[in-house]
Design goal:
The protein is of the alpha+beta class. The chain folds into two domains: 39 residues; 153 residues, Umud Fragment, subunit A (Ribbon), CATH 2.10.109. A hairpin with a 2-residue loop joins β5 and β6. The longest helix is centred in the first third of the chain and has 34 residues. The chain is elongated and about 90 Å long. It starts with a helix and ends in a 22-residue tail after the last strand. The C terminus is likely disordered.
Length: 213
């Protein structure tokens, strides 16, 4: 027979082992959730200058861009429709990471200009959304030299441009992107250390199309 002292020791050892296993599992779950919620991204190229330069490192918020279908309960939540993002999703001025519409080994980083249903036009170096010119002087490298539109952005699509307008492959070249292509929004630049900033995305206009001072 196993003595009482030995049984107590076995129970303690089992309890300690169980605690270690539970802690390891919890740690793995937290790690996987964090990995799905936030992603590190290295900027390549100069299409987002002067906002983002090549080789800079940024953190990308992915959790706000998870799509959640609440089925019949969608109608109970104001402003939602089937397939909406978990949080607010892209807005005008958001700097986002997305999968390009053609074969590429790298994701793209661009700024959201037009939302679903918006009418976008680029003419004479100026960008218009719903007939209102966007005030972009504080973040673009130079005005665009091309013309585009006017065109209405389809449902579930977004019109994106690089801040370095004339050195960017973006929606003026391949059209609006589908929401399923979006990975997340740039929320923080953490390298180089002398350029640390959380002021990456900004609204160019409000949702009514009025220029924000």
């Amino acid at each position: 027979m196993v003595g009482a002292d030995k049984l107590d020791r076995m129970r303690l050892q089992y309890g300690a082992l169980r605690e270690i296993i539970e802690t390891a599992i919890l740690g793995l779950i937290v790690f996987l959730l964090a990995r799905e919620a936030v992603q590190n991204f290295q900027v390549e190229g100069r299409s987002m200058q002067p906002t983002l330069a090549s080789s800079e490192l940024v953190l990308v918020n992915k959790i706000g861009y998870w799509e959640v279908d609440l089925g019949p309960f969608d109608a109970l939540v104001p402003g939602r429709s089937n397939g909406d993002f978990l949080l607010s999703g892209p807005h005008r001025g958001s700097v986002i990471i997305f999968h390009p519409p053609y074969q590429s080994a790298h994701d793209f980083v661009k700024r959201v200009i037009g939302l679903p249903g918006d009418t976008v036009e680029i003419v004479r170096g100026r960008v218009f959304v719903n007939g209102v010119e966007l005030d972009e002087h504080d973040y673009i490298f130079e005005p665009p030299s091309y013309q585009w539109g006017p065109a209405v952005i389809p449902p579930e699509h977004y019109f994106v441009l690089g801040d370095n307008r004339n050195s960017s492959q973006d929606s003026h070249a391949f059209g609006p992107i589908h929401e399923d292509q979006i990975v997340g929004e740039v929320m923080f630049r953490w390298f180089p250390f002398d350029r640390i900033s959380s002021d990456i995305s900004r609204d160019a206009t409000d949702y009514e199309g009025n220029i924000v001072p």
